[in-house]
Design brief:
Number of helices: 11
Radius of gyration: 19 Å
Length: 310
């Protein structure tokens, strides 16, 4: 369970660097700032090589048909994208609702969630570390939909507090993952959207091993359990960067079926979520967070050819 703590000297130093970097970016246009940050991001790929092997190994495992040169290109571009996302997240504090919507290129299926909110039913949204998940929440709020975002406590409490303030100012309510069991029913009763990042699972989180690019990946069960127990509508969402630098939201309904076998019903939901996430990653592989070891935790009987490639 995550617990809060006071900032250390290292935390303060990191936060000072972050705010100084954000101040520099704020002097530039949005496009210039994100392009600069993207270039800096590629430096972490080469020459610094931070988690470079992790990214390349996972991309090669997910796309075995790609030649080595293409794997390296996708990996490098994923670092560029991550740099841009970091800059966009830092600059969110300077935006208002109008500013958020200026970075919105349209939506596919967002009206499905809008309808649920208009009817006071609320909705659960599952997303992943694809595109810009922070901007996605801000865009939903900017469209007039009340949204709760379930997040983990970050390692640096100063940055955590900064991001929490930014989210709140843009209309998002932060729910700590440890509080989601209590807060999810309340949010749904109030007709709110509640969003979960569901493509990472910690050691002590109830999870299932779900196929992702043909390999078993540990996936948290909580959101699927909520959908079943609370009779809540469930959606997959992704916010994908377009060639012009703006983002487009994609929403798909995840059908919730109740067969009487809860474990199988939960896994069916998670399989559909993972299928949709994989589909969107295939369409924009450079925008996925390959630096995280998605297959680090697997069942003991996983065949050797499907083990974590890192």
């Amino acid at each position: 369970m995550s617990t809060s703590r006071g900032p250390t000297l290292r935390d303060r130093a990191q936060y000072a660097v972050l705010r100084a970097f954000a101040a520099v970016l704020g002097l530039l246009s949005w496009r210039a700032a994100t392009n600069l940050a993207g270039h800096i991001g590629t430096l972490f790929y080469a020459p610094l090589g931070i988690r470079r092997r992790v990214a390349e190994k996972q991309i090669a495992a997910a796309f075995p048909e790609l030649p080595s040169r293409e794997v390296k290109r996708v990996a490098r571009e994923s670092y560029r994208h991550l740099g841009r996302v970091a800059a966009e997240t830092a600059l969110l504090s300077r935006l208002d609702t109008k500013g958020v919507l200026e970075h919105f290129a349209g939506a596919d299926g967002l009206e499905l969630i809008e309808k649920q909110v208009a009817e006071k039913h609320g909705a659960i949204v599952l997303t992943g570390h694809l595109g810009n998940w922070e901007l996605a929440g801000a865009m939903v709020a900017a469209h007039g939909m009340p949204i709760d975002v379930v997040v983990r406590l970050m390692g640096n409490p100063l940055f955590d507090a900064f991001l929490t303030r930014t989210r709140a100012r843009l209309g998002m309510t932060v729910v700590r993952d440890r509080d989601s069991v209590r807060q999810t029913p309340r949010a749904l009763r109030a007709g709110r959207v509640i969003a979960f990042l569901a493509d990472q699972s910690g050691l002590h989180i109830a999870s299932s091993f779900i196929d992702f690019f043909g390999r078993p990946a540990k996936t948290p069960r909580g959101p699927a359990v909520f959908a079943l127990r609370l009779n809540a509508p469930l959606y997959f969402g992704a916010c994908i960067r377009q060639p012009d630098g703006r983002y487009r939201i994609h929403v798909r309904e995840i059908i919730v079926e109740r067969t009487g076998d809860t474990d199988n019903d939960v896994d069916a939901i998670l399989n559909e979520y993972s299928r949709l996430l994989e589909q969107h990653v295939r369409e924009a592989p450079e925008q996925y967070f390959w630096q995280h070891r998605r297959w680090k935790r697997q069942p003991a009987d996983t065949p050797p050819e499907l083990l974590d490639p890192v």
